[in-house]
Specification:
Strand content: under 5%
Mean pLDDT: 79
Number of helices: 4
Helix content: over 70%
Number of strands: 0
Low-confidence stretches: none
Length: 128
């Protein structure tokens, strides 16, 4: 994504590990925010298309996405066990899952349409 390298800086005294860690953490967070903002600016300027931008963001955020996949697998296994031990709850559990899925799908569609509108400079805020 960005060619910038931000080596961690240690400005606190070596004897004060907590202050040093906090300073290092703040500097790393600031560097990550700057890289993220540069990437958003580059994407918003239309230098790459939306699909490529989404794939690139997914690739760079894969370490954050993986725990969600693991969590989904664990929840899925738990729901399967609940349904196998209490078959009468199957319809209710599946209905709730479908409602949540449809809500997420609608939110994703709205996000994509707003992103496209922003990139095409045709988005109008509803609260103007």
């Amino acid at each position: 994504m960005s060619e910038l390298q931000f080596p961690p800086l240690q400005t606190a005294a070596p004897s004060d590990d907590t202050a040093s860690d906090n300073t290092l953490l703040r500097e790393n967070i600031a560097a990550l925010v700057q890289i993220k903002n540069e990437n958003i600016a580059r994407i918003a300027q239309g230098q790459i298309n939306i699909t490529a931008a989404l794939v690139e963001q997914k690739w760079h955020n894969r370490h954050q996405i993986y725990p969600y996949r693991v969590k989904d697998e664990i929840y899925g296994a738990v729901l399967c066990e609940i349904i196998s031990h209490h078959p009468r709850l199957k319809t209710e559990v599946l209905a709730r899952l479908e409602v949540v899925y449809q809500k997420l799908r609608d939110e994703e569609a709205q996000t994509l349409s707003r992103t496209r509108a922003l990139l095409e400079n045709s988005y109008k805020t509803p609260h103007v």
